[in-house]
Write a structure and sequence with these properties.
The chain is mostly helical and 445 residues long. It has one domain (7-193, 209-406): Growth Hormone, Chain: A (Up-down Bundle), CATH 1.20.1250.20. It has helices at residues 2-9, 15-46, 49-76, 79-102, 108-131, 142-171, 173-193, 209-221, 224-245, 247-254, 258-282, 289-309, 313-341, 347-375, 378-398. Helix 11 crosses helix 13 (313-341).
Length: 445
């Protein structure tokens, strides 16, 4: 373990990686302030879980639709420049939310419309964020680099929601939006300080995002390893991320722990991911990527079933912990497999396809599993989802389909760090009503 840990943290000796990792951690903590604040604002204004779900949908769909444009742009221009622009746009959206609140806008429609821009700017940003990892981490450290950045995201998930909830309770959601806006200064500063080599780019062809997205789909479909990685991450999005988000129903309806219990379950997911990150990163070169994913998928399904049958809330927290272990293992390894197999000229466009598959599968899974919860109860839905998850994972493993993840054939050129896609915002548990608040002016809140 000592050798693996040293090998893992050695990526922090790389100046560009270190700068971007720290900047991303600060920015992601701030982003969780906003992620928590939007559903609270929508729910307090409407008292409707449907409105909250609509706001989450308003973020996810533009992200999925715009990702193809982001991928084409990220392959056509210097990725650090693209990231500086997209991060600046995201900061402006956070500023808009801040201004909306403090000038007294209390229309839920206004916040849903702004949520569209939250998703659209994220869609432009994510492909470049995913692809630029190859410009700062050498091939032999790629899994370590991706895994530690996933750990960074999960670390922010442990800290950000808790701090955001405290800030909203003490000062109101406007200050949460403000904290997110200023947090972008950390990642923008890190981008300015990074010293990146110039990447030669062929711009002889006109920018055609949809055509290039279709080209990336054909490219991925023709390559076994990339194809299976995208199909597998779609399954993780449909079942894994959906079950994480819908654990709000387990906390509230099964164990009567409400929002606090939901926060503990999500915190345990983040804790599992952070604590297991050095083990996952240190596995590079010692364990086949197919074996890591095979084990993690079975663990993911087993964790869902453990939550479904848990007689005590504490055992459900254990299931959430192992769900976090499985999530970072699958996400980091699938991402690494694609990065090692894709050619540099089409890297960002293929990563855009990867992101689109994840972001489309997640809300679809939430919708269908959520309907099953409404029709039955959370335990039945978790049992069905966990059972389907384990059947599909076992079929992939026993048929040998995951072997494609071990292929290394792309033109990898080490030249910031991989972000992790946020699951859509969860709706509050059924039956929850916002607590009454005294009339107050915007400044008071």
């Amino acid at each position: 373990m000592t050798g693996s840990f040293r090998e893992t943290v050695s990526v922090f000796r790389l100046r560009n990686y270190r700068l971007f990792w720290v900047g991303s951690l600060v920015s992601n903590i701030g982003r969780w302030f906003q992620t928590v604040a939007i559903p609270i604002v929508i729910f307090d204004l409407t008292g409707s879980a449907g409105w909250v779900g609509f706001a989450g949908f308003a973020q996810i769909m533009p992200m999925a639709l715009v990702t193809s444009v982001g991928g084409a742009v990220a392959d056509r221009y210097q990725r650090r420049t693209v990231l500086f622009i997209t991060q600046s746009l995201q900061a402006l959206v956070a500023v808009a939310l801040t201004v909306q609140w403090f000038v007294g806008v209390r229309s839920p429609t206004a916040y849903v419309v702004t949520s569209v821009f939250v998703g659209a700017t994220a869609g432009l940003n994510l492909p470049a964020w995913q692809a630029i990892v190859s410009e700062m981490v050498p091939r032999e450290k790629l899994l370590a680099g991706i895994t530690m950045n996933s750990a960074q995201f999960n670390g922010s998930r442990m800290i950000g929601p808790a701090l955001g909830g405290l800030a909203i309770a003490a000062w109101g959601p406007g200050w949460a939006f403000f904290v997110n806006a200023i947090s972008y200064g950390a990642v923008l500063g890190s981008l300015l300080l990074m010293s990146m080599p110039h990447r030669d780019i062929d711009r002889s062809h006109r920018l055609r995002p949809l055509h290039e997205f279709a080209e990336a789909a054909r490219y991925a479909a023709a390559r076994r390893g990339i194809r299976i990685a995208i199909l597998t991450v779609s399954m993780v999005g449909f079942f894994g991320l959906s079950l994480q988000t819908l654990s709000v129903t387990i906390a509230a309806q099964v164990f009567d722990r409400g929002e606090q219990g939901f926060g503990l379950m999500l915190g345990c997911v983040g804790l599992g991911a952070v604590l297991s990150a050095p083990f996952v990163a240190g596995a590079a070169g010692r364990i086949k990527r197919s074996r890591i994913v095979e084990t993690a998928l079975i663990l993911y399904a087993g964790a869902a079933l453990l939550i479904a049958f848990a007689p005590w809330f504490e055992l459900a927290l254990v299931g959430s912990f192992f769900m976090g272990v499985a999530h970072i293992s699958t996400g980091s390894t699938l991402n690494t497999s694609i990065q090692l197999q894709v050619d540099e000229a089409i890297r960002a466009k293929v990563m855009a396809l990867y992101i689109t598959s994840l972001t489309a599968a997640n809300p679809t899974g939430q919708l269908l599993i959520g309907q099953l919860i409404d029709a039955t109860d959370p335990r039945v839905a978790y049992t069905c989802a966990g059972g389907a998850f384990i059947v599909i994972a076992s079929w992939l493993a026993f048929r040998g389909h995951l072997g494609g993840l071990d292929i290394d054939e792309g033109t990898y050129e080490p030249v910031p760090a991989v972000a992790e896609v946020h699951p859509s915002t969860p709706a509050p548990p059924r039956g929850y009503q916002p607590s009454p608040k005294p009339d107050s002016s915007p400044s008071d809140r």
